[in-house]
Amino acid sequence: MGAIRTVSYHGTQLAFCVPNALNHIRVQTFSTKEPETLEWIESIPQGSVVWDIGANVGLYACFAAKARHCRVIAFEPSVFNVELLARNIFLNQLTDNIVIVPLPLFEFLHEDTLRLTTMSWGGALSAFGVAHGFDGADIDQVFEFRTLGMPMDDVVKKLNLPPPDYIKLDVDGIEHMILRGGREVLSGVRGVSVEINDGFAIQAAECRRLLADAGLRLVSKRHSDLMKTIPVFNETFNQVWAR
Questions:
Q1: What single string gives the DSSP state of each residue in 35-65?
Q2: 122: alpha, beta or left, given left = phi > 0 and alpha = psi -120 to 50?
Q3: Is 89 exposed, middle or buried (0-12, 13-18, 19+ CB in 10 A)?
Q4: Theoretical Cys-Cys bridge with 23: which of 18, 55, 114, 199, CB 3.0 to 4.6 Å?
Q5: Which residues, at least 6 apart from 4, have a Cβ–Cβ distance to it below 8 Å?
Q6: Is residue 126 a contact partner of residue 77, using CB atoms and an 8 Å limit?
Q7: CA 67 to chain centre
Q8: CATH number of the domain to which 30 belongs
């Protein structure tokens, strides 16, 4: 945990813990893995409220808080990632800017199982309330625990957290279920960046319908040259929706 790497992007300096090879790669590819996400964050007005749903270790949460002075609500249920997320927030002196909610979001309030494909810090591809992953296929589970899932609308009503101006949504397979539980939140949001695998056709279609029903329109759909080199992610794109 004492190993730290720094990154500079368009004048914003950030530092991140790199306790394993995966986190070294995350920092090394900070500007190349999802440049469209960084561009979207840079377009957000200063001081906006951003919900980072699936915050992982906080690369984008920290960037939004530091580069755009956003108030970020970071949702990350993995017990392995939450430690690193908290360390990265502290490292960048963003404790007053970012709130960690260590719970998964879902379409309704209930207790269920979070299934993980890895116990590594910085791991992804987990699943809450279902056994499938980002592509609709069964995940290769190695660890699980029970936790509480909560709809977006209840985050505002029951946790008394501010509604988002902007939402970044990347949870590897249940994006449509999360959107189902956020009709009130979506009605007031200015923009959404959501990662969707077009190969998971049922999910992709429902996400488009829910976002359009909320009065949002699709602005762009992109993935990086780096992601194009990984066959399993060829059909996965970051979609930007705006009001």
A1: HHHHHHHHTSPTT-EEEEET-TTSHHHHHHH
A2: left
A3: buried
A4: 18
A5: 15, 16, 17, 18, 91
A6: yes
A7: 17
A8: 3.40.50.150
Q: Which domain holds residue 200?
A: 4-242
User: What are the backbone angles phi and psi of residue 26, rounded to the nearest 5°?
Assistant: -60, -40
User: How many CB atoms are located within 10 Å of the residue 85 CB?
Assistant: 27
Per DSSP, which regions of 69-159 are E strands? 71-75, 98-101, 110-116, 127-128, 143-149
Residue bearing tokens 């992007």: 9
Q: Per-residue confidence of the chain (243 residues) as pLDDT tens digits?
A: 899 999 999 999 999 999 999 999 999 999 999 999 999 999 999 999 999 999 999 999 999 999 999 999 999 999 999 999 999 999 999 999 999 999 999 999 999 999 999 999 999 999 999 999 999 999 999 999 999 999 999 999 999 999 999 999 999 999 999 999 999 999 999 999 999 999 999 999 999 999 999 999 999 999 988 888 888 888 999 999 999
Number of folded domains that form the chain? 1
Tell me the whole-structure pTM to 2 decimals. 0.96
Query: How many whole angstroms from its chain centre is CA 232?
Result: 19
